[in-house]
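Narrative progress, year one. The postdoctoral researcher (J.K.) led the effort to move from monomer predictions toward full complexes, under supervision of the PI. The following entry was the first complex the group processed end to end, covering 639 residues in total.
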Amino acid sequence: MKDFSYRRAAMFCRLQLEETYFNKAWKSAAWIAVTLVFIIALPMLSGRDGIREMMAGSEDLVRLFAATQIVFLYFDLISEGRAIDRMLVPATCLEKFVALYAGAAFLGIIILGTSVMAGSLMYLAAAHLMLPGQTADIPVFLFSEKSPLWTYILIFGLAPSASLWAIPFVMRKKKYGTAAVCGALAAYLAIMILPGMLRLAGVITAEAASIATAAVMGIFCIFNLRWGYVMLLRHESDRNANE
Amino acid sequence: MNDFRQDKAIYLQMADRLCDEILSGKYGPGERIPSVRELAVYLGVNANTVVRTYEALSLQGIIQTRRGLGYFVTEDAIDRIVNARRRHFMDETLPELFRQMQLLDIPPETLAGKWEEWKQGR
Amino acid sequence: MVNIERVSYNYTDGKAVINDISATLDDGRIYGLLGKNGAGKTTLMKLVSGMVFPKQGRITIDGTDVSARNIKTMRETFFMPSEFKFSDMSMEKFVRLYSGFYPSFSREILEDCLQETGVERIIRTAALERLSLGEKHKVMTAFAIASGTRLLLMDEPAGGMDIPTRATFRKLLLRHLRNDQTVVISTHHAADFTNILSDVIILGHNGEMAFAGRTEDICDRYVFGIYPSDSGALYAEPCAGGYHAVRERGLEGPSEIDLEILFNAAVSGKLGNS
């Protein structure tokens, strides 16, 4: 930990964001905007019952979109073929790891922030068309309902952090053995849904299950962080040298 | 026939080159010659090779090093170079010539005449 | 100082690409890494730079294991790949984003290299990815030399360069390298770099060490030339003037080093020990 430099981590985060996303800023912005509009509109077209249900659907998709940015950043991190590959840039694995999260958080916030505006506008327009006179009833996009805590932990904490070890884990299944990989993933999922299963079986109350799930997920987040980092430390170049 | 082509080692080629420059007056007695690094960059060779060149020339007393100042042509460099080349002529070039003459059955008497011819042509 | 200790590496299909290689790379020396296609030159460089881990053995730089990816080692190592892509950005931006990671980076050296290779003016405005192959290589080489890292690994730098550019490249290397820097140049064009090398490492067909030696020792121990017959030669190839051969040096004067013949002799196993 003595080697950790915030400056370097920040420089690396900036490198990733600038070279990958802000290089052709309007191109990236356009892509994100189009994707946002598309995924917000998707539930509208699904013909669900009420506007609130549609909005909930849109919100979930937007949250998912925001949370998966870290996956793109991860693949950018391990990509090869550049003049200077990211993994060779002189920064410690920990600094790069932290930069991933910082970059993902940054992108996620931008996406969520933009979606509040975009979503609210789109749903306001939709409401005008579908339920004229009730537009005052439309909630602000992204804040329409209160989901249980564990959904937020799942989307913004667990899924992103788990990706960082699960993706390399699966990619290296040759090394670990397909059986070990499948087994580990199955066990991981099993423990996570255990509280839910216990509730369904009537062993514990819904509220206890909710708390238990949140706790399990919290612990798993720590597990994810550690193993994500370890996987990065052990990451090797994939490309067979084409000589 | 021992006819083979072998290019001299680079460090010796560079030594010859420097000697040529000393003989032609480009570097006079007591004058400073390029540093190891300068010559390496100029000729596009590894600095270690230049070191070898300079060591060889120092050994022959053609150049000398002055601490902190660089390499310099010695006062009697020209004499030493000419003597060394004379020795090389006598020890290497002439015997090789004689070997050829013997193999080709060319009598030594022809040499004087050919020498005159050559001088006239200049 | 780089210490390669009994390193082996093979790809998942089992074929050994680096086979029990040991070598020491000293400061201030320029190593030529020769080997046939597929012989593992690139893999060896990837091993030394820490991009891949040895299956056996280990590599240390100044005592630190490269696999640890220690920051002090990383920021003094620069690897220039044989093929690469730039993003669509300007040189200025590239330097702004990347040079901060290399504490020994020198803007003056970069400018000098760009100027000598004649791309100085283009670089100010052009987007890097749109440059021609030759121009890209000039830019990358300039950055590599300017990085000032103690270890400079260049994989086939001559590949994207025309002949005059190679001469300029040699000149720039010699001009800017410090005494504490170590350079490893892998190449197919052995003859291009003969004069600037201080050491030669030759990899055999099975990734083994076929030969390793200092150029001065090669000069002392072997003679190269064109001879009327191949008798007595360690290795010979017929050519226009007779036989291109390498022999043990006896009493004759030292000759120029012919890296092509040395290479062919080494991979044919004709040179004895390494």
